[in-house]
Amino acid sequence: MSDDARTFLGTDLSGARFRDVVLVDAKITGLITGLTVNDVEVEPLINAELDRRHPERILFRSADPDDLRRGWEIVREQWSATLARIRALPEPLRRDRVDGEWSALETLRHLIFVADDWFGRTVRGEAQPYWPGGLVPSFLEAFHPEQLGLDLAADPDLAAIERRWTERTGQLDAWLTTMTEAELARECPSSFSSGAGALLPARTCIHAVLEEFGAHRRYAERDLDRLVTVDGK
Known about the structure:
Blueprint: E1 36-37, E2 40-41, H1 43-53, H2 56-60, H3 65-88, H4 91-94, H5 104-121, H6 158-178, H7 181-185, E3 187-188, E4 200-201, H8 202-231
Antiparallel strand pairs: 1-2, 3-4
């Protein structure tokens, strides 16, 4: 919980029960699965509306190689425009957080971690997949990501971030260009995010990358709009 008693950050409310509560003008972001409000399951409604607003999400979940290639192409194009907006910001605003959310630079660093974790470690089977400047979500910090080579105190600038971003997304470009249904079905080691456990099909790993890149671009655009409005430019 933050200093504001009404704000919960990185809070695990799994299994919580709220009875006779008042949620006027409340906002919730995060992993929402199995939530019911007034006896209505919310997750299918959220997913349907997000799919309507962002139809590329349907491609992100597909098992068809051509759909996944097209989904990646779309999100890459979207991120090209978003990166241009980030480059245009003064350096302090690149590091500015809106309502406690990740800054623009932190968002990029997190997506590098996602690609390292769900593609470099799993699909490519790299022995040392992690860039030290990658940013893990707070719930993973308890599992000692520093043992993987991640630097929790890292604070890279945009130039360093973009170098790693270009390297890793280029590898994704190349892999997706030639991947097949058989390759998508191939079993891969588990990611750090999913915890040590059973092997995962490459398809699941690529879905995770696409969905994260898509979702965090939307969050970044939302916050960039706020930053530009506040800055008056």
